Amino acid sequence: EMAATVINQGKTASGINSLVLYDGSPAAGGAYITSLTVPALEPGMSAALTYNWNVLGKAGAHTIYGVADSNNAVIEFNESNNTGTAEIALPDISLGASTAEPSYKANQDVGMVFHIANLASDRTYENWSLNISLLNPQGNTILSSSNNWPLLSPATEISYAMNWNTQSNAPGNYTVKAKLIEAANTFTEGNALFTILPTPSITGTMSLSKDTVIQGFNIDISYILTNNGNINLNSGEAKTEIIPVNSQIASVSYTRTFGAITVLASLSQTLNIQKVEVKPGDYTIRLTATAENTTF
Predict the structure, then answer these.
(1) Cβ distance 108 to 166 under 8 Å?
(2) If we measure between CA atoms, which residue out of 289, 284, 264, 261 comes closest to residue 205?
(3) What's this model's pTM, rounded to 2 decimal places?
């Protein structure tokens, strides 16, 4: 993206005019890039303009010229300050790495995209590969991938996308490193950063000692709670509800506390109801667990 600012340094308002961009000096045959509309400007006012220049096939050094009011549509006291220049150098090949979001929670997919552009007009890259590494906050590699391509023609571009699930990896800043390699030589690199957020998460499974129980008899409700987040849970509370299908019948609930559950660890508990004292009918058993962490 190219950016230019046009300022009215005169003492009178200027009407709508244009800013013409050239690759090289227009007086020496510089290549026309585009013409941008400059709005009317009061004295001292400025306008910021941008343009996305397609640089495929344009590797190398360039001097970009911006010429305001190139057709002399604006009457000016000083016509000599209407031209600006900028120097840019474009590599033979570029590699960009990005993630769909700047941050993710535990058990979310990180969408990674790698954009490769051959900016040279006369070079073909053959038998090259895109090597991808993912580094955790300690700098250790936790994912590596190598993807081979037979050919990358001049002035062409490709994109490669992949997903990685955060699972229960620790909170912190992660780095995606990408390298383009040809014949064992790295010729360009690209990096991206994202953050995994502290995520408390707990899941549960439940089983019953019997599917049918006679009123006044006992039943055991067993459940397993698993910490599938990325931070330890210090304590929590499990609530078991016996909910009737018939909404005219009141539900019954039982609450039990539990202690610490580390990441990916599980805790088993059994609720023994010695005497079922609900009215006859069909019931749904629902388990709800809440937990806390005092560190994050």
Answers:
(1) yes
(2) 289
(3) 0.80
